Amino acid sequence: MSFACTNFSTIALLSKMAGHLPVMLREVLEALTPERGGHFLDGTFGGGGHSRAILEASPEVRLTALDRDPEAEARADDLRSQFGPRFQFHRLEFSQLDKLTEHGYAGALFDLGVSSFQLDDAARGFSFGKPAPADMRMDNASGMTAADFLESAGEEELVHAVRDCGEEKSWRKVVRALREARGTGKLQRTDTLAELVAGAIPQRGGKPSRIHPATRTFQGIRMVINDELGAIARMLPAAFERLAPGGVLAIITFHSLEDRPVKRFFNKLAGRPEHAGDHRTQDERTQLAELVTRRPVAPGEEELSANPRSRSAKLRAVRKLETQPA
Any bridge partners for residue 297, and if so which? Predict the structure, then answer.
């Protein structure tokens, strides 16, 4: 089946049958054009929805998938049994691309953020919808939990998490509340942590926000303990370097802190100003790629209705030039 001409309803149905609704699937397939065949990389396997669709686009497609989540490896078994040697899975964080010997990808996809499987599993501690240990690790077999981080982090680390990564305007009050709660047990569980954060944020007049007051702080803590921004910075040049000439790098982001480095890196590859303060002349730039998406692509109305979690998603893509400058 060619997905390029398939409407979202059909794609959503096929994805739900597989137990997962991947974000912006139609747009991803249009950017990567896997129907032409080739070797592709899915750097954020998650539930495998994107990987499956890419493999189904053509019998000439091979795909390598990565994910640091131990639970994703078990979900990859279905694709192994269906696609055999055309599909490979490695339990790796996408910033560890240097551990792969493969090069020459026809396309590479990275769907940043937390997977639906992680959000829906209360025990993982990413959400405060259901009481659970405050974990938030994408690889729950290693590293420091959110609770351990909050109990031990220095002032600057907490400020970085809440103010810089969480973009919480009332960060001073939240940081103070977190420090004062140490040793009380309130930092150990998602429900008590969310209640603590919400209580530290002043209530403003007008209509109540549909976003829980603790959302930004939870985001910031999650990003810090998983080193998400550092992983993106390491991944971008490594992923582009592994593309074949003419290969496409596609990245889905969910908030400005993820999107900003992607936008700047893609502009740099395309020989464009990286940001508003970049005043270099064109002679001082080197073009290595062309933009597939001049502006970020957003989900359509049909997808937003079927999958509200996609509402903040943005897709950007670049194509590596066939001939690279000397």
Answer: 315
**How far is the C-alpha of 26 from the C-alpha of 301, rounded, in Å?**
13
To 10 degrees, the CA torsion angle through 157, 153, 44, 111? -40
pLDDT tens digits, one per residue of 73-131: 888 999 999 999 999 999 999 999 999 999 999 999 999 977 666 776 777 877 877 78
Q: Are 115 and 71 in contact (CB under 8 A)?
A: no
Structural domain boundaries enclosing 46: 3-117+228-320
Cross-strand pairs, 318: 249, 291
pTM score of the predicted model: 0.89
Beginning with the edge strand found earlier in the chain, give each strand of the sheet holding 314-320 in spatial order.
87-90, 61-66, 38-42, 105-111, 243-253, 314-320, 289-291
133 in a domain, yes or no? no
Please give the structure tokens belonging to residue 251: 């990245």
Same domain, 181 and 269: no
Comparing CA positions, the residue from 263, 262, 255, 296 lying closest to residue 166 is 255
φ and ψ of 6, to 5 deg: -95, 135
User: For 208, which DSSP code?
Assistant: P
pLDDT at 18: 44
Which residues have CB under 8 Å from 297's CB, separation 6+? Answer: 24, 27, 314, 315, 316
Give the C-alpha separation, 202 to 260, whole Å.
29
**Domain tally, the chain:** 2
